Amino acid sequence: MFVHPGVVPSADEPRHAYHHGDLRAALLDAAVALIAEGGLPALSLRECARRAGVSHAAPYRHFVDKDALLLAIARQGFEWLADAAEAAMARHKDPVERLDAYGVAYVRFAADHPVHHRVMFSASLGTAAHEHEGEDRAFDLLLAAARDVVGASGADPLEAALAAWSLTHGLTMLILDGRVPARLAGTPAQAEALARRVIAQWRGPLLARVVEDPSNASTSRRVPSGGRRPKPKSRG
Amino acid sequence: MFVHPGVVPSADEPRHAYHHGDLRAALLDAAVALIAEGGLPALSLRECARRAGVSHAAPYRHFVDKDALLLAIARQGFEWLADAAEAAMARHKDPVERLDAYGVAYVRFAADHPVHHRVMFSASLGTAAHEHEGEDRAFDLLLAAARDVVGASGADPLEAALAAWSLTHGLTMLILDGRVPARLAGTPAQAEALARRVIAQWRGPLLARVVEDPSNASTSRRVPSGGRRPKPKSRG
DNA sequence: GCCCCCATGTTGCCGCCGTCAACATGTTCG
DNA sequence: CGAACATGTTGACGGCGGCAACATGGGGGC
Q: Which residue of A97, A106, A203, B155 has the fewest C-beta atoms within 10 A of its own C-beta?
């Protein structure tokens, strides 16, 4: 049996275990493992079935086709992402800090679940199925945070959200594609720290404050000779 | 013949036209068209051969395998990207403006050549072949621009480059994946304008100036009630 | 000017894959 | 107890990537 205990049973699918223990979960697990080993093109339903110890057509009793399996992984990922972002934001009151927390949680989530992130944003699905409930939830969280940040300034919250999403999404993709030196993002913890520094580097005029402390905004007028690169002194 | 005149012969491969006019270029064209129509999974060497009017094994005389064809597309894309970035940066002297120009050119390139960008950053190749000459050239340009921006401030140029790359790369991926409303990025020109606004939104303490005009840096201390969203008055 | 060689393209084959249809089995419930 | 249904199996089909063996024709050596 390849069903390792890490599997969260997702609590919204048939629980009955007829012949196999929980084939659906086993297939999802095998799929994630396959993608982790050889990327998306390495995923095959037949190999998943093999690893789950069932025949090559058994998966079709749980997923209408290959894309449905990928969709299930993506859905799970969006749920986890929304949960992580929500929890991270809940630890802050300041709008900017909440937006930062979202971004850091985003990168951290991708570092912790690289396969899920890759599947969530794989072009295969892309336009096909943009109706994940979790995706809407994650995006609504981001949009609300952006709205709080821009406040009544008249700036477009959607574009602010897009800008924040772009930064963290781009960093995430570069890390996951191995284009960031391992020294900077070799572990999820390093990736998270890098995300904090990258976000801090970009803090801009729209947000009208320095990340470290709202009171000393004047330091943003010139290149600070020191005190730059604020150590994320365990905020939260 | 499916060889439309848009094909740039790439000028570094055997020019002799034995039986087919220029099968290699025809295959590359067909591959790009296939990916444009149905994404990466829609690419098949056999369909490329069919569209080029040759037998299913003919492509193997020009590409050792499917990945080699994708690699050729990626290489072409990196060359184009480096050229575009170089040209865009050459129109500016100010370091920050040069870095901005790089980012805008990056997004514009991806909007103009979505298939190439997708292939360039497809996970399939990823770790396999990071030795595109064009990729090094494009990254070196970015790194040099970042170095000029951070100057002697002591900031890590690599991390600054990474931050800039993250923002534009993320925006690019979101646009290409259809996650940005068509109203904001339906055409390459719109995507370019959006890139300018997104970059401007993030201008931060490290760069210590407002994008519009270096002299009015004080407007960055408060959320500007007006004058935000600077119309990109055809800089250059 | 001739011929041979090799780059180019073809045919045929293999195994793998996604997917479907037909069949088998075991569970649940009337 | 038996029927209906969910689950899993077997076998088949066409498409694909890739290899080997064969065909061809153009250009360079003589």
A: A97
| Domain around B52 | 23-61
> What is the residue-level pLDDT of chain A in tens, covering all 236 positions?
333 333 333 444 444 556 677 999 999 999 999 999 999 999 999 999 999 999 999 999 999 999 999 999 999 999 999 999 999 999 999 999 999 999 999 999 999 999 999 999 986 665 555 567 778 899 999 999 999 998 878 889 999 999 999 999 999 999 999 999 999 999 999 999 999 999 998 874 444 443 334 444 444 444 334 333 344 334 32
B124 touches chain A (CB under 8 A): yes
- One domain for residues B193 and B89: yes
Kindly state whether residues B78 and B107 are assigned to the same domain: yes
Are A40 and B198 a contacting pair at CB < 8 A? Answer: no
Q: Is B223 on the interface with A (CB under 8 A)?
A: yes
Let me know if residue A45 belongs to a domain. Answer: yes
> In chain B, positions 158-197, which contact chain A (CB-CB < 8 Å)?
158-160, 162-163, 165-174, 176-178, 180-181, 184, 194, 197
Tokens of B56: 């299913």
B116 close to B74: Cβ distance less than 8 angstroms: yes
Question: Which nucleotide is at minimal CA–C1' distance from B27?
Answer: C9
Query: A205: buried, middle or exposed (CB in 10 Å: 19+, 13-18, 0-12)?
Result: buried
Phi-psi region of A122 (alpha: psi -120 to 50; beta: other; left: phi over 0): beta
Task: Give the C-alpha separation, B23 to B187, whole Å.
Answer: 31
